[in-house]
Please model this.
Amino acid sequence: MTAGPSRPSGPGTPAGPSGRPGPGTPAVPQVGATIPPLERTITLPDMVAYAGATWDWYQSHYDPDYVAAKKLPGPVVDGQVFGALLVEMLQDWLGPQCFVQRIDFTFRNLMFAGESVRCEGEVTAVAEDDSWVDVTMTVTTLGAGGRDERFAVKPASARALLGRADGTGRP
Amino acid sequence: MSLLTDEIRALVGQQRVYVAPEPFGAASGRYFGLAIGDDNPLYRDPQFAREQGLADVTAPPTLICETNQYAGLPMDAEGYAGHRWGIQIPDTREVRGGNSYVFGRRLRPEDVVTATWEITDVVEKTTGSGAAMLIVTSRATYTDQHDEFLAENTETIIYVEIGGAS
Model:
């Protein structure tokens, strides 16, 4: 997969003794703060790799003859990859001491091989003790010139714990 | 035409359980990270992972909800090798609605995953254009070999009537 130009740099550094995110990780975000977006182009070889990594060889995700018979314009990107990209965006932003505890996403439109998406989001709530943040997000398929063309995912939301790299068990 | 038949209603509560034939393994997480383009060192650098308080490398969190690795099923005629309910509703097309994941902790290479799938709800609605649609909600609960909670995946599959709407 090809990363877009707006992808943030990698995760931050370990938590301090308090369990809060350590130096190099962002400060606790405020409500309304924008998450650095993540852009990705998903090519057919990426989709073949994803099929292997998930043990999912359903032909609609890579077989041109199969999708042509189904009257689809091309191999269909497995929608569950959008959940993985949204989590990647959150972890890249919040650093390795965050833990995505919950994520929900609703599919809107199919994405096809060779297309690009942009994941975006903003903070909707922050715990009084700064132990978690809630976010709302979207995934948009991009058209010519990088313009927004159609939603792949909308709405999506998540809660990320801060300072709890390995979660808290069943919430 | 109602899609919500007695036979469909009777599906609620059905369960299937899959126990992985082996531990999840470190390579599965590293491979998935490569496949999705996520270069987070938590998935490939044991020292970095330990510095974060983890016992070892882990996998991208959503992998457990996306993979068929645990199922141990053969490929069907269309190449799919994961859990399915085998619901066939004539004159409908099947589309994904969405997913909701909950995570308890990060996956470890030694985890032997058990996935318990259950149909939790079936409901009939009408699309904006007047076609009938049946929404089937399933929940998969993933636990390790000590019955510790790992994750939960609630997903909706929608069967939309073809040619029934104006």
Summary: Chain B touches chain A through 47 residues (CB under 8 Å). Helices of chain B lie at 6-9, 26-36, 46-51, 63-66.
